Amino acid sequence: MTRYQHLANLLAERIEQGLYRHGEKLPSVRSLSQEHGVSISTVQQAYQTLETLQLITPQPRSGYFVSPRARRNRRCR
Questions:
Q1: Closest by alpha carbon to 67, among 55, 75, 53, 76?
Q2: Domain 3-66 belongs to what topology?
Q3: The dihedral of CA 59, 57, 4, 27: what is its sign?
């Protein structure tokens, strides 16, 4: 499993567990990069994966937010 897939799975689990609620802003790309010791592009790939799964939505100049359409039991591959 690649780093971005691992990070995407971790974030998806947190969404499913309710640690990040619908409409809540996710941590910034830079803060996640520093927190997990990965590159900014790795975090961007993880967020892109979650966006494709409709778990999060981007808001220009604001960041990423948990999608109201986020469903339980979604996993990244």
A1: 55
A2: Arc Repressor Mutant, subunit A (1.10.10)
A3: positive
CB atoms near residue 5 (< 10 Å): 16
CA-CA distance, 54 to 24, in Å (whole number)?
A: 14
pLDDT tens profile 32-74: 999 999 999 999 999 999 999 999 999 999 999 999 877 654 5
How many residues does the structure list for the chain? 77
User: What CA–CA distances, in Å, run from 39 to 22, 54, 63?
Assistant: 26, 23, 17
Measured between alpha carbons, how far is 37 from 31 in angstroms, rounded to an integer?
A: 10
Q: Where are the domains of the chain?
A: 3-66
Structure tokens at 34: 């520093």
